[in-house]
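Data availability (excerpt). The following record was deposited with the supplementary files.
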Amino acid sequence: MTAVTDMPELPRAPRARSGRGPSNPVLRWLRENLFSSIPNGILSVVLLAVLAKGVVSFVQWGVANAVWLTPANDSAACRAARGLGACWAVIPEKYRFILFGTYPFDQQWRPALAILIFIALFYVSTRRAWWRRELVYVWIAALALISILMWGGVLGLPFVEQDRWGGLPVTLILATFGLAFGFPLGILVALGRRSKLPAIRSLCVLYVELIRGVPLVSLLFMASVMFPLFMPSGFNIDKLLRAQIAIVLFAGAYLAEVIRGGLQAVPRGQYEAADALGLSYWRKQRLIVLPQAIRHVIPPLVNTFIAFFKDTSLVLIIGIFDLLTTAKTAIIDPAWQQFSVEVYIFVAAIYFVFCFAMSRYSRSLEATRAR
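Predicted structure:
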């Protein structure tokens, strides 16, 4: 008998579709996610109908029947359209007060420029090419320039006391400094909670539990009322700085717990490998442990950043005019008092832009980590 030799395998013909699912990817996605069963299909149709109704109503109110411009300080057209369309004319009428508060009208280009510097600083800080030591000097120079613009008193700029500050610059100042100083404080406290020295560990635990056990409102009240009592006679700190200290302490306690979770997620072998290389404690933390720990907790870190950015609105209770407070004050004017919804939508859009940018950046960091 002759031996049977192995024949080369011929390419198989593609299988015909079974006809169980649509070939169009859009239809396939709709069937898998919205209409996978009869109850899901009914619920999807109901929700889509409600969503469509809401979108149509909002377009009619906010676009088709809206009043966009009116003569200066004249809300007659808006009052005539009340109940039918939005009055967006209140925004160009009040936007300068909403964004800059009671800052001198002829000097409002200074806080506007400060806002642009903040945005440019945030953008530069998100670029990996700038993650070098020089970025620290960029931050110092930018914050010094913002201070000169806001305070003045030098370079021919009139001095403006902090009681006249308000609006978006105050919100950005509180959020930026609060997170810029609260983040390293949180790292130190997280490391202290894992320290082998009982005194340091107990002190860090006491700080975290004490700060996390009270709301931010209480800390702001204490910073505003009680903090000056501990200062020497004749020495006074303005209320913006007092609020900033309270926000830094509050942010540091919450970030410490987030970072401590990341430290616990680092495998013990990484610590042992660092010890085997003979690295000192701080070099081990800076080069090996902390980069891995922070990568593990990027989502909760960004969630905390977003929460603190919005929590700056609580400074209203100690008389600081942040963005939300200036928006509330802007509609005290009887001519525009009926159109608060449009003002709040405008402020919500500003908050959304900053929070959405932080969220998108965190997603890009997670995607980079996953590669």
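Summary of structural features: The two ends are 57 Å apart (CA to CA).
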